[in-house]
């Protein structure tokens, strides 16, 4: 690839000076102009090609940096999605189990005792939170390049903070109920519908949050690859406006701030 340097200028000026001197000596300025005009056209062409190559190289570097940023972020984002999927699966299972309890079944549930002994809800919550914080840390390393998407990260962080508080409160209520069940074998049937409703609400929030993580994954891919591929992934569509997307999540937290 041709690169325009100061050495090129010196070489061209030297040639033109020589041509000018020869033209002056022989007294034939037409000959001089016959050489000068094509030389100027050639120089202009070289300058244009050099400028075009530099612009093309600049765009290529920009695309490469975007793709590298996506490659660095995609694994932490995938880990967050998996962790929240596991947490959501657990919450769904507890919601289902609670729905099967009735006053005639005042029995001791083996799976429930296992939950109490292993503190699964707390462990899954901590794992999801750690994965999310790692995802944010990696994103912040590419903050300048991903600046057009920064509102999406802020919305995810705000929603994540709300989710953590919600699930911690749920954990306290659920494990207080589990304690009386495991230690005293008292079902406290009147608390079951309340717990079930809280688990249902939490599952809905987790489902929305997982969907928003998927949206961000699509958006980062579009941002990284759209210029190169001249195409984009379609946005996720929801059947009901009550279900959050990353766009409605941004509006939600902007209105709250």
UniProtKB/TrEMBL annotation:
It comes from the Bacteria. The chain crosses the membrane at residues 9-26, 32-51. Keywords: Membrane, Transmembrane, Transmembrane helix. This is 5-bromo-4-chloroindolyl phosphate hydrolysis protein. It comes from Paenibacillus alvei TS-15.
């Amino acid at each position: 690839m041709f690169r325009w340097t100061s050495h090129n200028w010196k070489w061209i000026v030297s040639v033109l000076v020589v041509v000018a001197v020869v033209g002056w000596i022989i007294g034939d300025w037409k000959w001089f102009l016959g050489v000068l005009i094509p030389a100027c056209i050639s120089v202009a062409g070289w300058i244009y090609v050099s400028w075009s190559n530099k612009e093309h190289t600049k765009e290529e570097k920009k695309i490469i940096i975007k793709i590298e940023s996506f490659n660095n972020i995609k694994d932490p984002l995938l880990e967050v999605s998996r962790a929240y999927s596991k947490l959501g699966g657990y919450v769904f299972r507890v919601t289902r189990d609670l729905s099967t309890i009735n006053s005639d079944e005042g029995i001791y549930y083996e799976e429930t005792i296992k939950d109490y002994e292993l503190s699964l809800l707390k462990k899954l919550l901590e794992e999801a939170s750690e994965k999310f914080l790692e995802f944010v840390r990696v994103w912040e390393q590419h903050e300048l390049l991903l600046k057009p998407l920064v509102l999406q990260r802020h919305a995810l962080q705000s929603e994540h903070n709300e989710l953590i508080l919600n699930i911690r409160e749920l954990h306290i209520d659920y494990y207080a109920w589990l304690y009386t069940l495991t230690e005293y074998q008292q079902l406290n049937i009147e608390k079951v519908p309340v717990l079930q409703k809280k688990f249902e609400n939490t599952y809905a929030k987790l489902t929305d949050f997982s969907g928003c993580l998927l949206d961000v994954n699509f958006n980062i891919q579009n941002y990284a690859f759209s210029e190169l591929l001249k195409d984009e992934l379609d946005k996720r569509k929801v059947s009901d406006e009550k279900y959050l997307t990353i766009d409605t999540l941004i509006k939600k937290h902007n209105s709250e701030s």
